[in-house]
Amino acid sequence: MKIKLHNLIFVGMILGVVIGLTLHYLDKAAGAETPKWIASSLWVLDLCGPVIFMGALKMIIAPLILASIVAGVTSLPNIKELGAIGWKTLVYYACTTGIAVAIGLVFVLVIRPGKQSAAQTIRAEREIEIAELRADYERQQGNATSENDSGLLAFIAQQSGDRSASHDAAKFAKLAGAKDRTPGDMFRDDIVKPLLMNPFESVSNSPPNSLGIIFFALLLGIACMFVGEPAQPVIHFFRSLNEVILKITHWLMAVAPFAIMCIMAKLVAENGPEIFQTLGWYCATVILGIAAHVFFLVCVCKFVGGVGPIALWKGLREAWMIAFTTRSSAATLPVTIANVTENLKVSPKVANFSLPLGATMNMDGTALYEGVAVIFLIQIYGGLVDVPFELTMGVTLVIFVTAVLASVGAAAVPDAGLVTMVLVAAAVGLPIYYIPLIFAVDAFLDMFRTSTNVLGDAIGAIVVNRLEGRRLEAAPA
Ligand code: ASP
After folding, report:
1. CA distance 74 to 66
2. How does pLDDT run across 53-68, given as a tens digit for each residue?
3. Ligand 1 pocket by C-beta < 6 Å: which residues?
4. Residue 94 Cα, ligand 1 centroid: separation in angstroms?
5. In Å, how far are 20, 24, 448 from 268, measured between CA atoms?
6. Burial of residue 439, with CB atoms counted within 10 A of its CB: 0-12 exposed, 13-18 middle, 19 or more buried
7. What per-residue confidence (pLDDT) applies to 371?
8. How confident is the model at residue 202 (pLDDT cuts 50, 70, 90)?
9. What angle do CA 76, 364, 169 make, to 5 degrees?
10. What's the rounded Cα separation, in Å, for the pair 185 and 362?
11. Neighbours of 230 (CB within 10 A)
């Protein structure tokens, strides 16, 4: 009897957790120094999972986006059709992302994870730390300071930044690099410049510049439609390339169960269950918010897209599991396209265009997460001398808008949401040295937000496919 791929992937995930927990506890039992054999096992797991499997998926993303969009656009009967699919897709993205943030805000405001006792212990420790820093500063200055002394605030910021950097220097450096940029800078540097980047540079960047590739592919496809007959060789080339890359995707999917076992084992071995001790309420809030949003998306899929939850799960389970473990919507894209077109019968005309766009721009899980995370931090630290505000209606509104923008700007790679969260924090004046508090659980929560991002993209393709189909049927022949 042949075991189905999705069952094997599921077994891979479970085995990964078991192996990861075993390595984690054996490592702890061995004392301060990690035994050599455990270090070697982690090295092998890293090589087989993140390095080889995710590397191979990432290798095909750039040509896939280029080929699938050119193939999708040039298969449409005319340019008006592209416009119709395009605006429906964008309206769907805008509405579902906004609703995701709103759901996250409701959950974090009702559950109040930052006001629970574990979080309040963190606040009490921070109050002591600030009192010590103030005493140090006053000793240096030789006089007492007032509440909003700018020298004191700068001293606290510098000392706290140094401490945060010592937790995880690489991640903190990314946050610090994004800190001083205005929304105008971000628009120019993260949207306009990438859109117009030389396509060879876009493809060769790591991670690839998806926005630039999408824009160039759209331009290429539209120009082919206008040129007509002489453009046929170009169109054939990209259509064949698209088929060939889907073939490679199937080969990669065949080794996914083993690769996913390695990715899971490494992640669990390195983190262990202890990370939830202080941040349990926060994790629960994010996961409950995501569950509510998934419920909403599934209803949209049923009532607007015409696909019920069981058919959706059966059609999309491989992509969902790969997104959950790889934590990258971009790396999952080849599998998402294969699942949506082959199992859920979405027309490649819609899927080839909307899924690459969705993987780049539409991140419901990330948007929800960013809002919850920043409010959680304000619930803990709001009112301290360096966070001189509380959660008002105005602050919540700013968080809502910036969380949507930050999710659009996030790259479809692991941990990206953590970096763009700086935009949300900076907009309300929350110092970025508070963000490292949630570093420990970020990879875990990234699994939930990435799989929700992919689900949102897939349901978008199903919905637009249904609406387009209806419209085409209604149009006069
Ligand atoms: N890892 C997510 C994705 O690839 C982005 C994020 O970090 O939220 O969709």
Report:
1. 12
2. 888 888 888 888 888 8
3. 327-329, 363, 366, 410, 412-417, 446, 449-450, 453
4. 17
5. 5, 7, 15
6. middle
7. 96
8. confident
9. 120
10. 21
11. 8
What is the Å distance from ligand 1's center to 371 Cα? 14
Give the Å distance between the CA of 81 and the centre of ligand 1: 30
Residue type, 136: D
Q: Which of 196-210, 308-322, 390-404 shows the lowest mean pLDDT across its residues?
A: 196-210
Mean pLDDT of the chain: 87
Q: What is the Å distance from ligand 1's center to 208 Cα?
A: 15
Index of the ligand 1 atom closest to the CA of residue 327: 1
How far does residue 231's CA lie from ligand 1's centre (Å)?
37
Amino acid symbol at 2: K
What is the structure's pLDDT at 477? 39
Looking at residues 441-447, what average pLDDT do you find? 89
User: How many whole angstroms separate alpha carbon 120 and alpha carbon 125?
Assistant: 9
User: Omega of the bond prior to 476 within 30 degrees of 0, cis?
Assistant: no
Instruction: Encode 187-222: b = buried (16+ Cβ within 10 Å), e = exposed.
Output: eeebeeebeebebeebbeeeebbbbbbbbbbbebbb
CB 96 within 8 A of CB 366: no
Residue range 96-126, pLDDT digits in tens: 999 999 999 999 999 999 998 888 888 898 8
Pocket-testing residue among 174, 404, 415, ligand 1, by greatest number of atoms within 8 A of Cβ: 415
Predicted TM-score of the model (pTM): 0.83
> How far apart are the C-alpha atoms of 261 and 389, rounded to whole Å?
45
HSE, CB side, 13 Å, CA atoms: give it for residue 210.
27
Residue 28 CA to residue 91 CA, distance in Å, equals 50
Q: What is the pLDDT of residue 163?
A: 67
- Find the angle CA(10)-CA(15)-CA(16) to the nearest 5 degrees: 95
Closest ligand 1 atom to Cα of 365: 8
